[in-house]
Amino acid sequence: MRILICGLGSIGQRHLDNLINLGYKDILIVSARKFIPVKFKKIQIFKTIDEALKMKIDLAIVCNPTHLHEITAIKLIKKNINIFLEKPVGYNRKKLVTLKNIIKKYPNNINMVGYMMRFHPAMKIIKNILKKKSLGQIFHFNFMWGEYLPYWHKNENYKKSYAANKSMGGGAALTLSHDLDLAKYLFGEVKQVNIIKSKINSLKINAESAVDILVEFRGNIIGNIHLDYLQKKPTRKLNIYGTDGVLEFDYYKNELSINKLKSLKIKKFKKFKRNDLFVEEIKYFISAIKNKKRIQPNIVSSFEMLKTFKLV
Length: 312
What we know:
The protein is α/β, with parallel strands linked by helices. The protein folds into two domains: 3-115, Rossmann fold (3-Layer(aba) Sandwich); 121-271, Dihydrodipicolinate Reductase, domain 2, CATH 3.30.360.10. Helices cover 29% and strands 27% of the residues. The chain is built from nine helices and 14 strands. It has helices at 10-21, 49-52, 69-78, 93-103, 121-132, 172-175, 178-187, 275-290, 299-308; strands at 3-6, 27-30, 44-46, 59-62, 82-86, 111-114, 138-146, 190-198, 210-217, 221-228, 235-242, 245-250, 255-260, 263-268. Helix 1 (10-21) packs across helix 8 (275-290) and helix 3 runs parallel beside helix 4. It starts with a strand and ends with a helix.
């Protein structure tokens, strides 16, 4: 299986390391970076995707900046290459519509968008709790995720990163859209959405630094999703409220609690490592290719999700 990695930033290097550790050796890279880590020097590197596409490729992992996602995916789909596309799927609605229409011409193509939080062991438990209605009727939820953008890659100028630039598909809403995908994954059909974006001048970026989304799901489930680039002490929490109990998940504490009237259960994920999420999602994607199985979240469903939340 020959694998092409498009983009060799931090996430591209993570995927490359993981693939090598999983035993994959036939790997190609597309990167215009002047500096390539020494450990990757022996891997064949192309400056453009057009050069790489002269080779036979079985699957591609797209992890270049957001504003390049659509055009990269279009070129790959036209070659009917299976794609793992890092989130978000893109930000240009017109290009995303074009991509969606091209995908229709290749019904056997397997593609996936990298919302890796679905692979957290806590999410599997939460999904099962909601399925069994163990909390009674769900009526409210609150998701909070805040991190300080300048801390992400301390050796780089954050103001030049795609995350900080609207023209590159940046901004808190798209860059931190994992929680939007999780909400859709956990609660299903969205009925209505209200979104407020704000720009706090302290970061001096040209994209929103924070966003609040009030959303109603089918079944009278109403909640708020808050995302920001501003919290110097990272916070990532998920609370779900039901008529029979409350569920709380703290990502940074690796702790899930289910609090009912007469009981309190606490689950700690002591063996969990963040990189496990990336390993599991790639294993899932490659398994789907081998078994010719369509999967979620894919490019079309992720595009529809971003439309629902008024982000494209």
